[in-house]
Amino acid sequence: MKRSKESNRTCPNPDCSLRGQSGKGNIIRHSFYITTQGRRRRYRCKQCGRTFSSTHGTPYYRLHKARSLFDEVVHMCVHGLAISTMARIKRMAWGTVARWLESAATYAARFKDRMLKGFVIRELQADEIRTFVGAKKRVIWVLTGLEVWSRLWISFEIGRRNFRNIKRVMLDTLRRGRVEHRFLLTTDGFEMYEWAAKRLLLGVCIYGQVIKKRRENRVVRVDRRLLLGTQAALEEALFHSEDSSTLNTSFIERHNLTIRQGCSYLGRRTPCHARRTEFLEGQVALLMAYYNFLRPHTALKFGTSVRTPAMQAGLAKNRLSFRDVFTSRAVFLLFVLIAIRLQATAELSSELNNSCLKKHRKLSVS
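Structure (tokenized):
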């Protein structure tokens, strides 16, 4: 059944008793207001009597330019263009572009945190990107995690390359995803990954490391080590994997290249670098939402259709746009997440019932 636009709206008044609650029937159409870009709808809450515009709660609120121009600027940002370059192309002020990107990053991060949940973890790879903030001596790392089967970019953390940040990436991955069986985890030879896997993922994953020996900037030897799990379990995991035939980190390394190409702050040999860590975090969050929900992945091509990582992971039915992300019109995504959670609850209840029956039989026999 089609839902009206009013049923998806919520009252933004902090003093309203129905604030943030949709589908209550309290939002009705009120009037129009005129802007330089045309008419805009206003709505009214019957509970508190306050009126608000259709763009309230979105980065388009009080925007004095066309919304299509805002989307174009964001598209250029996730394709690696610097703020000064975008300002020259669009003949806009540098501060306006920076303010737009800051607002877009905030809403993209909220959308990502809300929608990136409920996927199945099959095979993970983790790695880090070295960069700097402010000055070259202030080295900082972007730690990332990738689900290989769906190419879904799960989580990232910006900071020092230590156990605390690696632990945050691992816990965030487990919080967002579902573990149905022991998955395969592959990283490089950094010892903090081994500590985190043995403390957080013991009995949950099969963990291996890929260590590359280089000479004159060329790989001369590759060592593969299995640190968690048995060789038989590793062979079984590789047999069921659709992408990997041996322990490798090629998918996360290729993904790191995609991140560098899409973020102007991470490009090599570029004068555009982040002055503050918050700017880098916002641009990476914006790129993450674009990569998962908007960008078709060439490795996920099935016939004539090319899927996004979110479509492959079952989080979306169609390819989204920045207009969908910024206005949060993703009701169909909620139906998918509800179905996934109901299925997981049913599976868990069946396992608990089976275990209870087995205990009951043992007690009856004794």
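Residues 57-185+231-355 form one domain. The two ends are 55 Å apart (CA to CA).
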